[in-house]
Amino acid sequence: MTADEIEILKSAPEKTKFAAKRTKHNGHNYASKLEAKRAAELDVLIQTGHIKFWIAQPKFFLVKGFDYVADFLVAGYAIELRYALTVWAEDTKGVETQRFRDSKRLWAAHGTIPLHVKMMKSGRWNTTVITPEKLNE
């Protein structure tokens, strides 16, 4: 991504989500019902021992002047790593905007941990994992 493209992304106004309704869960306000639903699911995953903890709205520095705020930072157990504790970021999306597609490219180039993008399709989560290039080296 060029410096001009990054500048455009930084200056783009932050629009509200499409038809999103702010929703409260456990005393915390979420930008959408979908995000609050995922927070509730993460709480259940803690209770059942599938994840250790999660944090809402973590901020990640990607490039100079552009921070990315994910919906969640999650610490859980990776089956493929023999249940070793691992960390990833999560974003819930009802609609994928051009701004988010640009952010995904920045994450792939400059992120430090995997980003799990979760979209609800027919009542089930469809997850795409964006793995930063530096983790593939």
Task: Write a structural description.
The chain has 137 residues and is of the alpha+beta class. It has one domain. The protein has helices at residues 3-11, 33-47, 98-110, and strands at 23-25, 28-30, 51-56, 59-63, 66-69, 72-78, 84-93, 115-121, 124-130. A 5-stranded mixed beta sheet has the order 3-6-7-8-9. Strands 1-2 form a two-stranded antiparallel sheet. Strands 4-5 form a two-stranded antiparallel sheet. Strand 6 (72-78) and strand 7 (84-93) form a beta hairpin. The longest helix has 15 residues, at 33-47. The two termini are 20 Å apart.
Q: What's a quick, concise take on this entry?
A:
The protein has 137 residues and is an alpha+beta fold.
Primary descriptors:
137 residues, 3 helices
What topology, given as strand order, has the largest sheet? Answer: 3-6-7-8-9
Largest sheet: 5 strands, mixed
Continuous helix count: 3
Radius of gyration: 15 Å
Could you give the order of the helices and strands?
A: HEEHEEEEEHEE
Mean of all residue-level pLDDT scores: 83
Please report which band the strand proportion falls in: under 5%, 5-15%, 15-25%, 25-35%, 35-45% or over 45%. 35-45%
* Low-confidence runs of at least 5 consecutive residues: 11-15
Helical fraction: 25-40%
Instruction: Give the CA-based shape.
Output: globular
The figure for the number of domains is 1
Number of strands: 9
N- to C-terminal separation? 20 Å
* Class computed from helices, strands and strand pairing: alpha+beta
